[in-house]
């Protein structure tokens, strides 16, 4: 598609454009970032910037932020944001930090594209791989995606998780397993759920090892990776312990995600389910929901063994639907990786339906939320219904992409079937 | 307007209207004080003493046994219980009775000092105490659980003498939703030695008490030691009520509320637009004629024989210039300050008192009633913002004094589902600019204990100072959380009551002590009174509406969500486990196959039938 040579000037122009767009919105519409911070679609209890500010305020006044029901984010954010000048007087530094995180994510995404892993992995080469978008286009799609821009302006801390996940993948495809594992540990430390990405990421790193220092034994390689992740996480927890002075951050950050004690509405499926759940079945369904979330990892990793990057992409899509506190930030991460599979887009069957459903939910979600919370003319079911539609739309996209990728694999064995009707038995 | 030191002038006089000696075993007093706008403050005070040694032996005498045994069982050293209803209109009624020391926020309030070695033991004793009191007073005090219990740090100080006890824990619980009613009054009266059969308590009647514009019932138990005497345990029961005179008189002569004919409307004739068809309602001060039986529905039945007969049981706070008619045999004693008189009543005769209409010739505002005192501080609290997602709380604090500033502790106990953002706490003087500087200048100290979901409420105590003749806005933001559907009350859309904020004005004399670095732990160390607040006031309670789910939906939600998950999981599973084949390959499937099979079976059956 984008055959033009990417010059350093164009690259810088893209990044500068994205940064200028974000800065311009903050300065010209100073009310907008605060409005976005308050939106439930962007800020969840575990990523909200307002809650981060409260945690920071308590931390700076020697009250443990974890001895309360407001702050559920990683402890190392506290010293990080304490280093920045006070947000209320000099907000620009905070914005710059978030913009930098976004640009770093775009850079990592670019490297993933440039590696060509999406079209030809170690074990599989797609016959259609020539048809692809350049790193420039995909980075631009990510940086100018309204979901990404809104997340950045809303200063949700999921921006940092996104950055860490993309860096983990970028490190893995560029043959740096250690860096990948460290980045994944950071992502897991910040949000916990990225830990489920470990199996496909280990496979991806294993496949893309540099030949000169490759470990032959897959088992040994996996053990090393797990060891690295565990080690880095242990170091991070120890640092958190030193920062906060106690272990009470564990139940308050990860425990909240496991038990869903904060039922603030979000775009996911959990909150209303557990608002309405009978008390005696609450723990059972919590376990079921978590098992369900984890169950995809094994199946996808095994079935799509030849393309670990696809597994990572699909898992990120599934997490964006089924994790306890999803937001549009998770969707933006998934949508950032989907264009890597430009070559299988023609094999997808429901592109129009998917696009329509996602747009429908995007526009109707805020409207229905307003009807429920502010106008009082709707009730909770309005917003719940739209989150269902949103979830279904995304799961349709995940399924369709998976179908397209598998059909692409299948057509390598059956080249004569290109363009023919098929069915599954 | 009088700054507060003048208030202490009264101590120099021999004064009938003041509360009497501690030595008496039982004492009761009714203070009646007409207020502006045809209101009447009736303040009932009952006090019983028992020595600590007698109390420990179980000789309760005037001390109610039921309560005494609860206190002994729960290791309670000092107890304060409040049942309140309505709003004290400080703008028209002035300073609160007892300087606010005997009132509570709307609903039920309880705070106590318990003797315990550890926090857990204190919690356990608190649980015993609240459950026992719940039974004794027919109130839902047993609902004071961990989420409604706080341990105030700056706001409350013990009023009794606890010099011998070192391990005291203060616990404070409040039930703003509790509706105070007759079933709470009955056990309250039962605690009195005369049980509401004689004396001033015979005037108390649920219909009148709970019809008042504002009423508060208080029970205070505290040990008091005077030098050279044995310490006594004192129980003081107080009922303050502000009656609307017009409303109280209505049932007698006009049982159905209807507007009076136009020519009988009390109009303010001084208004320039006053005419036969335009009426500005007159200030009700002129309408101050009433009698005891009109107001309370019955006359007072003698005196309680257990009281000291030399202490007059009823006092009336009106200027000496006003005429008051009383029943025969009653002896009137006028106080030297010319605004108060007391009545000595024969033990077994009914007591009736009537105030005629004040003399119209004189200026009614100066002669009819005693002008109320200006309180040290006015406070109003309200919600800001709209919608059920987030909001703010704004408290307007006004210092009426022209020359002295007021220092006070502002305490909020908020339910856990109001998630407050302390970083938005801001104080600014009205008309001043919104800067950080103003906040740090006005707020001197903050004690904050954040809420934990489903386990603990927010406790916020702010020590701040309001400069003279200025108004301060104290604001903060909060977020409303959505609850599990079983956690909503049956009337979920009514909203949730938020307890009144307690404002304790720090006594300026002791203010200097605290600033020298004395911390609050020295409570009760010297003197009998401890550190008494100069003035206490409570804001009204608030009604916070939370977002509600659809309560009829649990099954539907479980089914819909499960379907969505099944669709996604099924779709993924389907693609993962099934093989691709061309449309014309592989075994036949679908409806055609099934039909074919059924046809075959049927044909087989038919054949069998034919062959038979």
TrEMBL record, chain A:
Membrane topology: Multi-pass membrane protein
UniProtKB keywords: Endoplasmic reticulum, GPI-anchor biosynthesis, Membrane, Transmembrane, Transmembrane helix
Subcellular location: Endoplasmic reticulum membrane
UniProt signal peptide: none
Residue stretches spanning the membrane: 12-29, 133-153, 186-206, 218-243, 269-297, 309-327, 347-369, 381-406
The protein's name: PIG-U-domain-containing protein
Lineage: Eukaryota, Fungi, Dikarya, Ascomycota, Pezizomycotina
GO BP terms, alphabetized: attachment of GPI anchor to protein; GPI anchor biosynthetic process
Recorded family membership: Belongs to the PIGU family.
InterPro entries, A to Z: PIG-U
Pathway field: Glycolipid biosynthesis; glycosylphosphatidylinositol-anchor biosynthesis
Taxonomy, superkingdom: Eukaryota
Naturally occurring in which organism (per UniProt): Parathielavia appendiculata
GO (cellular component) term, any one: GPI-anchor transamidase complex
Membrane is among the record's keywords: yes
Major localisation: endoplasmic reticulum
TrEMBL record, chain B:
GO-annotated cellular components: GPI-anchor transamidase complex
TM region positions: 553-577
Keywords in alphabetical order: Membrane, Transmembrane, Transmembrane helix
A GO BP annotation: attachment of GPI anchor to protein
Superkingdom: Eukaryota
InterPro entries assigned: PIG-T
Region (Disordered), start-end ranges: 248-267
Name listed for the protein in its UniProt record: Gpi16 subunit, GPI transamidase component
């Amino acid at each position: 598609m984008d055959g033009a040579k990417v010059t350093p000037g164009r690259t810088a122009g893209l990044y500068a454009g994205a940064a200028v767009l974000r800065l311009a919105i903050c300065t010209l519409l100073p009310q907008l970032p605060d409005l976005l911070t308050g939106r439930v679609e962007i800020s969840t209890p575990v990523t909200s910037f307002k809650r981060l500010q409260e945690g920071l305020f308590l931390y700076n006044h020697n009250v443990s932020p974890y001895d309360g029901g407001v702050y559920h984010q990683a402890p190392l954010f506290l010293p990080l944001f304490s280093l920045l000048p006070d947000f209320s007087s000099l907000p620009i530094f905070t914005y710059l930090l978030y913009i930098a995180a976004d640009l770093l994510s775009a850079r990592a995404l670019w490297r993933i594209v440039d590696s060509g892993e999406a079209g030809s992995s170690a074990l599989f080469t797609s016959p259609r791989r020539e048809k692809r978008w350049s790193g420039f286009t995909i980075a631009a799609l990510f940086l100018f995606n309204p979901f990404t821009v809104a997340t950045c302006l809303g200063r949700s801390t999921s921006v940092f998780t996104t950055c860490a996940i993309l860096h983990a993948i970028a490190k893995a495809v560029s043959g740096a397993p250690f860096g990948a594992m460290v980045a994944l540990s950071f992502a897991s430390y910040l949000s916990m759920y990225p830990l489920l990405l470990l199996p496909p990421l280990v496979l991806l790193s294993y496949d893309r090892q540099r030949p000169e220092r490759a470990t032959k034994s897959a088992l040994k390689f996996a053990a090393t990776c797990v060891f690295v992740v565990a080690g880095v996480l242990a170091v991070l927890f120890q640092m958190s312990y030193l920062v906060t002075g106690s272990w009470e951050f564990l139940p308050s950050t990860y425990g909240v995600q496991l038990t869903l004690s904060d039922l603030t509405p979000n775009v996911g499926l959990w909150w209303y389910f557990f608002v309405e759940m009978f008390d005696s079945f609450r723990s059972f369904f919590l376990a079921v929901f978590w098992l369900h979330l984890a169950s995809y990892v094994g199946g996808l990793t095994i079935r799509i063994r030849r393309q670990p990057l696809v597994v990572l992409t699909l898992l990120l899509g599934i997490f964006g639907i089924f994790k306890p506190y999803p937001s549009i930030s998770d969707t933006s991460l998934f949508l950032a990786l989907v264009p890597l599979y430009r070559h299988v887009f023609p094999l997808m069957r429901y592109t129009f339906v998917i696009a329509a459903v996602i747009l429908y939910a995007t526009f109707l979600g805020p409207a229905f939320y307003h009807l429920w919370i502010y106008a009082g003319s709707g009730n909770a079911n309005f917003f719940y219904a739209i989150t269902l539609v949103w979830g279904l739309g995304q799961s349709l996209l995940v399924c369709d992409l998976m179908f397209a990728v598998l059909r692409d694999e299948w057509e390598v064995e059956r080249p004569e079937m290109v363009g023919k009707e098929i069915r599954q038995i | 307007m009088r700054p507060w030191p003048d208030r202490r002038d009264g101590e120099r006089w021999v004064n009938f209207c003041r509360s009497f000696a501690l030595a008496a075993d039982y004492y009761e007093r009714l203070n009646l004080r007409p207020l502006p706008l045809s209101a009447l403050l009736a303040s009932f005070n009952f006090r019983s003493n028992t020595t600590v040694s007698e109390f420990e032996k179980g000789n309760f005498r005037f001390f109610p046994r039921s309560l005494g045994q609860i206190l002994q069982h729960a290791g309670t050293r000092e107890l304060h219980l409040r049942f309140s209803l309505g709003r004290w209109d400080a703008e028209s009624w002035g300073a609160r009775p007892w300087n606010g020391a005997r009132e509570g926020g709307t609903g039920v309030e309880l705070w106590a000092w318990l003797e315990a070695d550890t926090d857990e033991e204190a919690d356990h004793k608190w649980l015993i105490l609240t459950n026992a009191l719940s039974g004794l007073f027919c109130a839902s005090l047993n609902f004071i659980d961990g989420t409604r219990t706080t341990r105030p740090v700056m706001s409350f100080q013990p009023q009794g003498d606890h010099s011998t006890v070192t391990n005291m824990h203060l616990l404070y619980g409040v039930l703003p939703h509790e509706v105070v009613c007759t079933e709470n009054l009955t056990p309250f009266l039962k605690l009195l030695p005369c049980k509401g059969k004689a004396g001033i308590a015979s005037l108390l009647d649920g219909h009148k008490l709970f019809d008042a514009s504002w009423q508060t019932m208080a029970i205070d138990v505290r040990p008091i030691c005077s030098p050279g005497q044995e310490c006594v345990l004192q129980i003081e029961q107080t009922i303050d009520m502000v009656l609307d005179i017009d409303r109280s008189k209505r049932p007698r002569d006009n049982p159905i509320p209807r507007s009076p004919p136009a020519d009988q409307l009390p109009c303010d004739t001084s208004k320039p637009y006053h005419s036969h068809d335009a009426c500005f309602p007159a200030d009700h001060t002129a309408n101050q004629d009433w009698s005891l039986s009109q107001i309370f529905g019955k006359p007072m039945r003698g005196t309680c024989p257990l009281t000291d007969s030399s202490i007059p049981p009823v006092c009336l706070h009106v200027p000496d210039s006003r005429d008051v008619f009383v029943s025969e045999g009653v002896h009137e004693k006028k106080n030297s300050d010319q605004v108060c008189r007391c009545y000595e009543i024969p033990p077994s005769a009914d007591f009736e008192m009537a105030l005629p209409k004040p003399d119209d010739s004189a200026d009614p505002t100066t002669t009819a009633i005693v002008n109320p005192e200006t309180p040290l501080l006015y406070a109003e609290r309200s919600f800001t913002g709209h919608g059920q997602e987030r909001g703010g709380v704004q408290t307007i604090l006004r210092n009426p004094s022209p020359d002295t500033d007021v220092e006070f502790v502002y305490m909020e106990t908020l339910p856990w589902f109001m998630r407050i953002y302390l970083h938005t706490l801001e104080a600014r003087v009205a008309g001043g600019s919104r800067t950080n500087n103003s906040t740090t200048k006005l707020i001197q100290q903050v004690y904050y204990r954040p809420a934990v979901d489903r386990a603990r409420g927010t406790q916020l105590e702010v020590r701040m100072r309001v400069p003279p003749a200025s108004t301060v806005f104290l604001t903060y933001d909060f977020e409303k959380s959505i609850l599990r559907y079983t956690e909503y009350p049956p009337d979920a859309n009514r909203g949730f009551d938020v307890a009144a904020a307690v404002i304790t004005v720090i006594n300026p004399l002791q203010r200097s002590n605290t600033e020298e670095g004395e911390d609050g732990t020295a409570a009760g160390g010297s003197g009998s009174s401890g550190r008494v607040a100069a003035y206490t006031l409570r804001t009204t309670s608030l009604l916070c509406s939370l977002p509600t789910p659809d309560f009829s939906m649990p099954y539907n939600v479980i089914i819909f969500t499960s379907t969505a998950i099944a669709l996604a999981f099924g779709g993924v599973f389907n693609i993962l486990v099934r093989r691709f084949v061309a449309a014309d390959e592989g075994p036949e499937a679908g409806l055609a196959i099934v039909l074919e099979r059924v046809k075959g079976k049927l044909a087989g059956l038919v054949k069998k039938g034919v062959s038979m």
